[in-house]
Amino acid sequence: MNTPDLYPPPVLPVPTDFRRPFWSVMIPTFNCADYLVETLKSVLQQAPGPEEMHIEVIDDCSTKDDPEKVVREIGKGRVQFYRQPKNGGAIPNFNTCVHRSIGYWVHVLHGDDYVLPGFYEALRAGCESSPEIGAAHCRNAYVDEYGKWTAISFQHRPTPGINVHFLHNQAVINQIMTPSIVVKREVYERVGAFNPKYPHSADWDMWNRAGRYYQVWCEPKVLACYREHTASDTSKLKKTGANIRDGHQYIRNQYEHLPPQEGEEITRQALKQHAYYANWIAERMLGFGDLDAAIAQLEEGLNCYYLPELALKKQKVERLKQINFVSSSTLESKQTENLIKHYQQVLSLNPEDWEAHTRLGEFYYIQNDLEKSLYHSKNALRIRPDANIYKNLGDVMQQQGNLESAFQFYSKAKELRWDWAEIHGCLGTILSKRGRWKQALEEYIVALTIQPNFALVYWHLHQVWQEMERPKEAVSCLYQAFRLDVRLATQIEEFVKLGNQLLVYDKLSEAISCFQYVLQVNPNLEEAQRGLAKASTT
């Protein structure tokens, strides 16, 4: 049985014997490397040591820039980097951040947002003020592409303390921007990760779920900056009205979680506020000259709640569009050709363009056109040696079954980039395939030293331990792999088997986590029920 999509996806706890920092600052990125420089600097300027703060950038397969280079140059070894195996979208990338976090408190900080001095000190004071606190937030500034402040968020209280009206106010309108809030990892483990059902309202839903079970601390100072710009995911959703549509669905769905005596009134207020929000965005879209986007916002706003002023404005904008020769959206050029065609055009002008050969080698490998990938990668290597090119050539050789050549190319990459965890993992895989278990073990351990949350390395490492007849170590590594990336388990029964194996080695909390995960997917699976009962009574 394949593991189904879960809403919201469950979050497995960090192993009990794992040494944990107070913070995990998790930075999701996609095509925003220029802004990432400011983001990282804002964190590093106030970061305690690695024993207190884990910092990691999670890249969703950026296509227009190189966030890993930024991490190397700005992080200088202090910041970890993880690239998704394929682009999955904003919410799955946020959830990877949660799954890979190891700190007691998690801060998901978008790669184009940043924090101001004193953020972590002030919010830690709130986090530690009571064990009942499950989240802490400050006020945030809204900034444009150039860092200019355009607005400041609502002030919930004049002094630091519990946000006593958090749940009611949040049910009506989302007042908390992601960079301004930190959440106890225990909360994610209890209520789940961000819900992919709400691509534009996943943060709103997340904070509401946290507020149902935990108190929320409020710091009234402005200590975080949320960036609004036309290249952001939020702006793309605004152009189609999908943001309002998504919020409308969420408001309807949250009704069952509201107090019975207040549910209808809160829902009415929320729908009305959402319509006003659509009107505000429509005004902004008109300021940009985007008539289609303004109409989309107004139409979805009216679907939420009928406001006469919205209906009148929609009529005016539609008349304005009719008297224009074309709408602003049609003034935009058609979508550019795909990246392969683009780099082919670059080579037609300059056959010695190193970047074009490098990128084509990578893109053709993704398309499984190994001969073309080999051709362009070798040309790039001829022009200028680079660790990424050597790795791509190693990947091609491994795909073709030429393990000796693959090993040589990966070794060359390691000579240029010893601190690249993925290269050590690739070498470990080649050595494993050749039955050189001890050498493979050494490479995998180096990979995990560089990048402790490398799920796939844990997966391969568990296989090495099995071959070396070390079952206890194998089971521990498999749990780490599944905890970091549940997709590595192709069948839900693998979690049941793992839970039973963990029981053998007295890893009770980890076993319980496995059985609980299974029962969230299939509450009627008797083997998981028996395993959980056994673990709970041992």
Using brief descriptors, characterize the structure shown.
538 residues; alpha/beta; Spore Coat Polysaccharide Biosynthesis Protein SpsA, Chain A; ten-stranded mixed β-sheet
Plain-language structure description:
The structure is a single chain. Residues 1-6 and 325-337 have low confidence and may be disordered. This protein is 56% helix and 11% strand. Strands 1, 2, 3, 4, 5, 6, 7, 8, 9 and 10 form a 10-stranded mixed sheet that branches. The chain is globular and about 70 Å long. With 538 residues, it is an alpha/beta fold.
Summarize this, please?
The protein has 25 helices and ten strands. With 538 residues, it is of the alpha/beta class. The chain folds into three domains: 205 residues, Spore Coat Polysaccharide Biosynthesis Protein SpsA, Chain A (Alpha-Beta Complex), CATH 3.90.550; 97 residues, no CATH class; 150 residues, Alpha Horseshoe (Serine Threonine Protein Phosphatase 5, Tetratricopeptide repeat), CATH 1.25.40.10.
